[in-house]
Amino acid sequence: MKAMRKFEAARAAVALWSCIACFAALAQDYPSRPVRVVVPSAPGGGFDLVGRVLAQKLGEQTGQAFVVENRPGAGTLVGTQFVARAAPDGYNLVVGGLSNIALNMGLYKEPGYDSLADFVPLSLVVSHSYTLVARKDLPLASLKEVIDFARANPGKLNIGTSGVGTGQYIGAAIIAALAGVDIVKVPYKGAQPVYQDLLAGRLDLFFDNTTTTGPYVESGQVKALAVSSRERAPTMPRIPTLIETGVVDLEMETWFGLFAPSRTPRAVVERLRAEVDKAALSADARSRLELGSGRSLRMSPAETEAFVKAEVGKWVGLLRKAGIEPE
């Protein structure tokens, strides 16, 4: 009996070392062919920038092509669904962000994927804050004054939005819900038409990416009321955060990183994590990712997974609180 147990233990040890050797070989051989990096949006914008910066650096580091493939449609659903259903072999990756990983879980009854079950985060590399701006001649100097006026005059103020699934729309809706005010949301097809009306004085407010709002604020074409990050934006140090205004207890940043299907071999996941971390730390990639208001993110795999899980829960709850029901 003892001999049998020794034999079984030895066989288990051999099997374990064989698996370890197999995983090591798999990681060493990967990638052996081009890797698809799906951007779930049209060219241009945050998703596309992150996808192209990382693809270029990963290609340089591994000697294998990382090919960006834009798959827009239904917000960010089409491209994200594609990778969720793709072979989990390390050759199909998706740029994940606040929109497709967290917000979509609360915006749609059947998004076609489960962010936490269907994907494993490789690394989050950058985040951007939003800034609430107002037309330059709006006779209200602070967010508190805006909220006080909105409470006393329901429906008298309006705010531009770029679609139900965007951070602009979600931020505007949640700020209004948390403050308990009625501010009319005006839908636009993109940010540029919003700015046309904002600069012309036909629109009162807009909640947009800090990188985009920066030039308009610096030139005095609009005035900034608050930034959504926990810390003030380095490019606009005089502008308070939403929390500092005392009006709403909200922190909101749009973050981006690279995700793989959840059943991707662990050895490949670890290889990709190491390569993405190396890419994101390079000076040229970091400067491109941080363009404008970007803040580089540095988290361990465990911290990254915990952060993504917390973001999904946080935003699903806030969407419900804002009265936004899944479609």
The counted number of beta strands is: 10
Examine the coordinates and then state which fold CATH places here, giving the name of the CATH topology of the largest domain. Answer: D-Maltodextrin-Binding Protein, domain 2
Biggest β-sheet description: 10 strands, mixed
Rg calculated over all Cα atoms: 23 Å
| Annotation field: number of helices | 13
Name of the CATH first level of the largest domain: Alpha Beta
The global form is globular
Distance between the termini: 62 Å
DSSP strand (E) fraction?
Answer: 15-25%
Average pLDDT score: 90
Structural class: alpha/beta
Task: Give your account of this protein's structure.
The protein is of the alpha/beta class. The protein has 13 helices and ten strands. Strands 1, 2, 3, 4, 5, 6, 7, 8, 9 and 10 form a ten-stranded mixed beta sheet that branches. Helix 2 packs across helix 11 (266-281). It is globular and about 65 Å long. It starts with a helix and ends in a 6-residue tail after the last helix. Mean pLDDT is 90; it is low at 12-23.
What distinguishing features does this structure have?
13 helices; ten-stranded mixed sheet; D-Maltodextrin-Binding Protein, domain 2; 327 residues; 19% strand
Layout of strands and helices, then pairs:
Layout: H1 2-29, E1 35-39, H2 46-62, E2 66-70, H3 77-84, E3 92-97, H4 98-107, H5 115-118, E4 119-135, H6 143-152, E5 158-161, H7 167-179, E6 184-187, H8 191-199, E7 205-209, H9 210-218, E8 222-227, H10 242-245, E9 253-261, H11 266-281, H12 283-289, E10 295-296, H13 301-321
Helix pairs in contact: 1-11, 2-11, 4-13
